[in-house]
Design a protein that fits this description.
By secondary structure, the chain is of the alpha/beta class. The chain has helices at residues 13-21, 57-70, 87-98, 103-106, 121-128, 139-149, 156-159, 162-168, 170-181, 187-206, 218-223, 225-236, 242-253, 287-312, and strands spanning 2-7, 26-30, 109-113, 130-136, 213-217. The chain has one domain: Rossmann fold (3-Layer(aba) Sandwich). Helix 6 (139-149) packs across helix 10 (187-206) and helix 10 runs parallel beside helix 14 (287-312). The protein is globular and about 55 Å long.
């Protein structure tokens, strides 16, 4: 079984992917689309939020190379001119892409975690028959968390994709271009919010909840990670490994972890979280930014939340 864990960045994808992979017999692959640190055995060069056009010959070439990622076959690395300005980076990518991974040789299931694949999730799910988990987080929480880490959205990743423009509508992409061209103090927050909106629109149109697709609310994961993970494991029919998952959850939810996965914490332990994870955004965003994000995303957030709750409440 192949499992894809995706969603907007800072929505809990790493935690859920690692928790599933703590089950014996499951092999974890971390962000195969991440060109800065590609997964072992992969060589796949696309930008974040890539939306493949299945009618485009160039994109089909990229899709063919996906077989090396999800089929776990060593591939020949490709490089851009900019790579050679960072020779250590280029060498690292070359070595990692040509080394065949050993995990799939002795694991029954593969879990691929990659929020950067959010706009291609439906195509990946169909092409590789993947069970798909989409992590959904409120846009203010996403924007605040990304700002806290100092990350930025490159608007070209959205606006330079004709296929994405056709699928979500000219107006949404034109708005992205207008925000990018401005110099407002809320510009960075608005770019993240508009990217969240476009990704959510694409998910709404192309990846409906069903037998092989489930949406998980980040708020539920924060509130009760043990319960959510066990429900996800039940949905995947991974019957074994309860003790191993319990050890993982004990380590990463009870304050004993020093890794990046320590971002899942109870409300009583804020040492490794921003207050935005519990609905307080003023530490990371000013009032104007909060209002701008709400004006861009509030309608879509309500629609998506209602849709997810209808599906998830009986099980999650």
């Amino acid at each position: 079984m192949r499992i894809l864990v995706t969603g907007f960045p800072r929505s809990g994808t790493t935690f859920v992917g690692r928790a599933i992979a703590s089950t014996p017999g499951v092999h974890y692959v971390h962000e195969p689309f991440n060109e800065e640190w590609p997964a072992v055995g992969t060589s796949f060069r696309v930008h974040p939020f890539w939306r493949p056009d299945e009618d485009c010959e160039k994109d089909m070439g990229h899709l063919d190379r996906l077989d090396s990622v999800f089929g776990f076959r060593p591939s020949v690395p490709t490089f851009s001119r900019g790579d050679w300005s960072r020779p250590r980076f280029a060498l690292k990518r070359a070595v990692r892409s040509m080394v065949p991974p050993l995990g799939p040789l002795y694991k029954k299931h593969l879990v691929f975690k990659d929020p950067l694949a959010i706009c291609a999730a439906d195509i990946l799910a169909k092409r590789y028959r993947m069970r798909t988990i989409v992590m959904f987080r409120d846009p203010l929480g996403v924007v605040a968390s990304i700002r806290r880490y100092g990350w930025r959205i490159n608007p070209d990743h959205i606006t330079h994709q004709p296929q994405l423009r056709r699928e979500v509508g000219e107006d949404m992409v034109d708005t992205m271009e207008a925000i990018a061209a401005g110099d407002s103090e809320t510009r960075e927050a608005e770019l993240i919010a508009q990217t969240w909106l476009i990704s959510s629109k694409l998910l709404e149109n192309r990846l409906s909840p069903g037998n092989d697709v489930i949406y998980i609310r980040h708020a539920d994961l924060i509130r009760d990670p043990d319960h959510v993970i066990e429900k996800v494991v039940d949905w995947l029919a991974l019957d074994e490994g309860h003790r191993a998952r319990k050890r993982f959850l004990d380590r990463h939810c009870r304050g004993t972890s020093t890794s990046a996965l320590g971002s899942i914490r109870r409300p009583t332990d804020l040492n490794r979280m921003g207050s935005s994870d519990f609905g307080c955004y003023s530490d990371d965003l000013n009032d104007r930014e909060i209002e701008s994000v709400r004006s861009i995303t509030s309608s879509a957030f309500r629609a998506m939340t209602d849709r997810i709750e209808t599906l998830s409440e009986p099980g999650l």
